[in-house]
What we know:
Largest sheet: 4 strands, antiparallel
Number of domains: 3
Shape: globular
Radius of gyration: 33 Å
Structural class: mainly beta
Strand content: 25-35%
Helix content: 10-25%
Number of helices: 8
Distance between the termini: 106 Å
Number of strands: 25
Strand order of the largest sheet: 4-5-6-7
Amino acid sequence: MTRKTGKKRGGSKPKTKTKTPTSSALRDSVPTPPSVEVEQEAAAIDVLTVDVLRTILRRISLADLLRAALASHRWRRVAACCLPPAPPLLGYFFHPVKTPSPLPIPETERIRYDAVFAPLHASSPRLSLDFAPDASRFNLHDCHQGLLLLEPSVELPKTILPRLLVLDPATHRRALLPPPPRDTVPDDHRWRRSRFYVGSALLSRAHPSKLCFEAICFAIDDRHPRAWVASFNNGECSWRALPLAEQVVVNFDPWWFESRCVHAAGKMYWHICNSARLIALDPATLQFSYLPAPEDLPGNYSCYRIGETPEGRLCIVTVEEQVMRLWVRVETRRSNNGWVLKTEMGLSRVYDTVPGLPRDMKSRITNIWVTDIDAGNKTKLFIQMKGYGRYSFDPTTRKLERLVTTGRKEYGDPIWAYFLAWPPAFLAQE
């Protein structure tokens, strides 16, 4: 007899079926392999030859070129060969001032504001001197090769050489130079009583990625120019005094010297108010000399400025009697003290576009003069219209652009064009 079997009580649990994952779950859990297009694109960039990569990098903007140089060591080497020869202009440093009253209203004491930076474009870096709190006690005095030189804002006796503050706004490095020691000049007590300190300037920079530079102090000792040279390297400053330039005689009151210098065409120049000549210093030889101005300068030689043309030639410009004149330095027999008049342009209609500017010739001659040739854009001039603002004038377009800050102050004089130290630190050769 066959025994029937049934389900046992308390027996083993029935086996559960394993759930098979769906195709969508597998797709979400497993990482997606790179597409063939991405692999091919990366491979195409890697196989670019140096010539092809150089051609590409030369076609992109400077900002993109610097970013591309950070991609790899190979791209950095190629980018270093594509850098433009001239350093890029980032903007301008200046001390803002309130617009003064026009002449003949006597000028009240002008309020001094800390130096600020006006970027050239919206994409330019926003530089400032906030990294150096003591900069508020100094005034801008020179700008050269990515460095700023500042002198104390407190006026010192002209027999004393001041401390100098040197700043690198791009890298936030600073150096405070002490005055030259008295024993730098032998028998210094002989010259100290007759000494007249003129000003300081940046002489050279040894390396764009390091704070290594030379600066000078310029003074008149017993009617002859003398320079002190400061060499700053690895945080150490040393001074040396140059011999008196006895071949150059200062037979006028040195008070007429302008304290700041102008870097132009490879040399340094100091204007002399109401004089038909300038004093020049050759940075290569450290020799002083006089440079005569053109003989046919209008007026009393008080309103001409030296600079250089876009081609790098030395030039002098005046804005007198509503006429702009530009002389270029040449070495020919028919020249005028070594100068040739290149441009002469009437400005009467240009001035008519300034709101409120008087129409009579006398008022315009009294209140308008050129303050500098724009070192950042050498085709332009900076023109002061006392009581009506400071302007940038472009002779090619015959247009004036008023230079005002966001706080409705105007650009003070001088206006320093700031160029990035070139080449950049990470592309400079050690």
